[in-house]
Design brief:
With about 160 residues, this protein is α+β, with helices and mostly antiparallel strands. The protein has a single domain (about 5-155), classed as START domain (Alpha-D-Glucose-1,6-Bisphosphate, Chain A, domain 4, 2-Layer Sandwich). About 25% of the residues lie in helices and about 40% in strands. The chain has helices at about 15-20, 25-30, 135-155; strands spanning about 5-10, 35-45, 50-60, 70-85, 85-95, 105-115, 115-125. A seven-stranded antiparallel beta sheet has the order 1-7-6-5-4-3-2. The longest helix is centred in the last third of the chain and has 22 residues, at about 135-155. InterPro entries: ASHA1/2-like_C, START-like_dom_sf. Belongs to the AHA1 family.
Length: about 160
């Protein structure tokens, strides 16, 4: 059965600043990897129909075996929809031999003005069953916290 995970938070930056950080290669490399990981973008094409390939490396792989190798998760992200300052829809496919990580997960980053900031809600639909829900939601929350730190420090 398809699963949907959802995490949100308010970020003290306007929607246009948050949206910009969702479509900037250097910004994504800085804030997208969850705590305990680092990321490197190998391919970059920020337009609808384009996308990117990110290699996420565990800083300590002993407790978190990767999906692609013992120390890495490699994910191909396609941009399905880009609505400036409102929404980024991504289609994510992990490179993995384990069929429990197969399939395309849709990640929707919804931005809504909230006072002087932005309420960011991330909805992950069709999450592969091999991805633990609690760990996934914790990872998304970690990325959102890093996004907040990144854009709030820039503003």
């Amino acid at each position: 059965m398809a699963r949907t995970d959802r995490v949100g938070r308010v970020i003290a930056a306007p929607p246009e600043v948050v949206y910009g950080a969702l479509l900037n290669r250097e910004a994504l490399e800085a804030w997208l990897p969850p705590e305990g990981m680092r990321g490197r973008i190998e391919r970059w094409d920020p337009r609808p129909g384009g996308g990117f390939r990110m290699v996420l490396t565990y800083l300590d792989p002993s407790g978190s075996p990767g999906k692609t190798s013992d120390a890495t998760d490699v994910v191909d992200i396609g941009f399905a929809d880009l609505v400036p300052n409102e929404r980024v829809v991504q289609r994510a496919v992990f490179e993995a031999d384990d069929p429990s990580f197969a399939g395309t997960m849709t990640m929707t980053w919804h931005l809504a003005a909230a006072g002087d900031g932005t309420e960011v809600t991330v909805t992950a639909a069709d999450v592969p069953p091999g991805i633990d829900q609690a760990a996934h939601e914790t990872g998304i929350a970690s990325s959102l916290a890093s996004l907040a730190s990144y854009v709030e420090a820039a503003g």
